[in-house]
Amino acid sequence: MAVQKFFRLFWILILLLSLGWVVGGALVTSGTLDDGGASDQLREDIIIFADGLNVPPELHPALLFVITGLPLALLSLFFAWRNYRALGTRSEAQKQQQNDRRGTLFITALSLVFALLLWNARGVDELLLAQGAPVPDSFSLTAITYPVRLFVTFVHEAGHALAALLTGGQVQSFTVSPDGSGYAVTAGGNISLILPAGYLGAALFGALLFLLSSRAPSMTRALSLLLGIGFIALTVLFARPDASGNMTALIVGVGYGVALALLGWLAPQGVNVFLLNTLAILTGLNAVFDLVHLVGNADIGNAGVVNDAAAFSQEVAPLLPPSVVALLWAAIAIGMMGAAMYFGLLKPARNELA
């Protein structure tokens, strides 16, 4: 911007000098100005100079100024106009970018409010029942967050699977049960990374999804499409029915995969930003509160299966009690979500307000 302004002033200066050359020279050589005979001497000098350039003698000295100065004036006028147009175009583009940023910021804030409303809808049934109001099943707001609960479990178990693959291990299968629990079966790999990859993987997924959707809204359609394909691929490769034969993992993986793919393919950018941010916030909140709950129940397993914090304490860090392991994981998850909220929402909002 500063360079373009400099060149605009440069071409305007050349334009003024060129016009001064044309107008001043024509006035002086034509004798219009009373300059005490200086114009006669200047005319003679010009004629001598023109003879050296083989300029036809019938050419009036005033025309020499016009011929030499007018093209330069027109050229400088053209470049000054081009530069002015470029500055105006850039200014309009900057205004459009600013409007886009503010629109994305508004959608992000709206998705945060919507996600928090959905999150707190968990207690709506209990509140209505406490007041003696009937709660029809079709009106149950907890049913809205139930699919998200299953989605977080799917991401949790997929985190174990991906950590095993990335550290050289193998994935036999993972399951999701209707009650929201899950189980991943892996072999080999780095157990110190595989065990925390469930809770922390879900928190990291939510944090990165929120950050990308907020700061790179133009990528959200492609992001939705890639996520949809990825979830379908993970489901086909590793998701299996649980011990009771429930197909929850397959339904959740394929259902969310198809929904995300269609979202990226058909929905406009604003809708993608809103829904991805909402999903990211709910996923991150579930992951954080799962870890907070785990801090107080780190020694409790599920159906004879040791939870991740207890398994990490036994196999990786025997000096750390499971509750301490869970507390450390919770702190990391809160830090990731806090950083995503700051860089994805709070910092851009503060910049716009400034």
Mind explaining what this structure looks like?
The protein is mostly helical and 354 residues long. It has two domains: 2-99, no CATH class; 141-353, no CATH class. It is built from twelve helices and two strands; from the N terminus they run αααααββααααααα. The protein has helices spanning 2-29, 38-52, 61-120, 124-130, 142-166, 191-194, 199-215, 220-238, 248-266, 269-296, 308-315, 322-353, and strands at residues 170-176, 182-187. The protein has a two-stranded antiparallel ribbon. β1 and β2 form a beta hairpin. α5 crosses α7 and α10 (269-296) packs antiparallel against α12. The longest helix has 60 residues, at 61-120. It is elongated, with a radius of gyration of 36 Å. Residues 135-140 have low confidence and may be disordered.
Topology:
Layout: H1 2-29, H2 38-52, H3 61-120, H4 124-130, H5 142-166, E1 170-176, E2 182-187, H6 191-194, H7 199-215, H8 220-238, H9 248-266, H10 269-296, H11 308-315, H12 322-353
Antiparallel strand pairs: 1-2
Helix pairs in contact: 1-3, 3-10, 3-12, 5-7, 5-9, 5-10, 7-10, 7-12, 8-9, 10-12, 11-12
Task: Summarize the model shown.
The protein is mostly helical. The chain has helices at 2-29, 38-52, 61-120, 124-130, 142-166, 191-194, 199-215, 220-238, 248-266, 269-296, 308-315, 322-353; strands at residues 170-176, 182-187. It is 74% helix and 4% strand.
